[in-house]
Amino acid sequence: MGWFSSSKSSETLDPTSRQDRQRCWDSRDAYFACLDANNIVKPGDEGNACAETKKKYEQSCAKSWIDYFNKRRVLADQQQGVLTQARTQAESVRSR
Amino acid sequence: MSARSLLSAFSRASSCSFPRRALSTRHAISRPTGGAARLPSVTFACRAYSQQTPPDPSSSTSQDPKQNPLHQTSSGERDRATVGVFTPTAAALFVLTGVGLFFYFRNEKEKLLEQRRKEREDSQVGRPQVGGPFSLTTHKGEPFTEKDLLGKWSLIYFGFTNCPDICPEELDKMSAAVDKLDTEYGPIVQPIFISVDPARDTVAQVARYVREFHPRLVGLTGDYATLKATCKAYRVYFSTPPNARAEDDYLVDHSIFFYFMDPNGQFVDAFGKASTVGDVVERVKKEVARWEREYGRKV
């Protein structure tokens, strides 16, 4: 199918199929878990540490989805940092 | 006759035509020894009363009641006998009170109605201008316009089939809410999905997509101009480029609210990502109950 242009060699992803979506999400979660285990935030910075899960991820999801999930992971991390900072600030103010 | 003398004549007339009972106290004071209220004693009391008002040049006429056109009760006894307790004063007081009460209550009722109408208007005023005419195609290839929204509550979500995660999540939420409402009311809430990705979301693609969410979910699509116009009417933003091709791999940035519309096709509320299935169900139930109170039916 046309919209899965990034890895034509692998099985195609049908975004209208609940099963296919779930497969993509599962592979993403596995890959991100691997990144977490290696203390890596930005996908692509891990070198070859998560090669296997990454391959599965790229096979199961459309390129646009991968870009979106990866960006969101970085954003979520930044957001987490800001939130933690805000919390510590609020606590220091309270204890003063 | 001057206005002044007319006034004094009236005051005399009204004060002199008191019924026996109404006059009895004053009578007793002026004539403590007086037994039966005969005519002379009453006229005496009458004169005594009228003399309490400032001296009037025309007061001399009261000496002879026959000269006073208003004072027709020259023989006051006959007059009192015919009218009984229902004197002109009492009648006037009665009528005035009646009229006063009538206007008072009418005024109060009007105020209440006005308030109720204003309340109803307020809820209308608070409604955003969301929605409007559109003409799209269902996932079964049938035409679907804004008129097809009438007579049913609807939940409308704008999205695209290639949506990574938010659209499926929101559509699942919407479907779960519709399932719950179905068990409560029967199928009075119509779930609708409108595509914002005309290049890739063909009728067949939308058909494949909607069947996995809810059996009654209607998927709508159309060409770029039609969808853009529909989204504009519904205040939905989307970023699909007009020249996108079906084989392109891109995401569509779009508003992720789903709308809740009433059986008149009027906007009621919008639910965002933070709303839970329970929130949606509660909101719909509240609105259906209000509708039922107003129209006596659920749709």
Overview of this protein structure:
- The complex is a heterodimer of chains A (96) and B (299).
- Chain A has 96 residues and is mainly alpha-helical.
- Chain A has one domain.
- Chain A contains three helices and no strands.
- Chain A has helices at residues 18-37, 51-60, 63-95.
- The longest helix of chain A has 33 residues, at 63-95.
- Chain A is elongated and about 60 Å long.
- Chain A starts with 17 loop residues before the first helix and ends with a helix.
- In chain A, 23% of the residues are buried.
- The model of chain A is unreliable at 1-10 (pLDDT under 50).
- Chain B is an alpha/beta fold and 299 residues long.
- Chain B folds into three domains: 3-83, no CATH class; 86-126; 135-295, 3-Layer(aba) Sandwich (Glutaredoxin), CATH 3.40.30.10.
- Helix content of chain B is 47%, strand content 11%.
- Chain B contains nine helices and seven strands, in the order αααααβββαβαβαββα.
- Chain B has a seven-stranded mixed sheet.
- In chain B, strand 1 (135-138) and strand 2 (143-145) form a beta hairpin.
- The two termini of chain B are 73 Å apart.
- Chains A and B meet through helix 1 and helix 3 of A and helix 7 of B.
Topology at a glance:
The complex is a heterodimer of chains A (96) and B (299).
Chain A: H1 18-37, H2 51-60, H3 63-95
Chain B: H1 3-16, H2 20-30, H3 39-52, H4 76-83, H5 88-125, E1 135-138, E2 143-145, E3 153-159, H6 166-185, E4 189-195, H7 203-210, E5 218-221, H8 224-233, E6 258-261, E7 267-271, H9 277-295
Parallel strand pairs in B: 3-4, 4-5
Antiparallel strand pairs in B: 1-2, 1-5, 3-6, 6-7
Biased composition (Low complexity) (chain B): 50-65
GO molecular function (chain B): copper chaperone activity; copper ion binding
Binding site for Cu cation (chain B): 163, 167, 254
Question: Largest contact between protein chains?
Answer: A-B, 20 and 17 residues
Class of the largest domain in chain B, according to the CATH hierarchy?
Answer: Alpha Beta
What is the count of β-strands of chain B?
7
Number of helices of chain A: 3
CATH topology-level name of the largest domain in chain B: Glutaredoxin
Unreliably modeled segments of chain A: 1-10
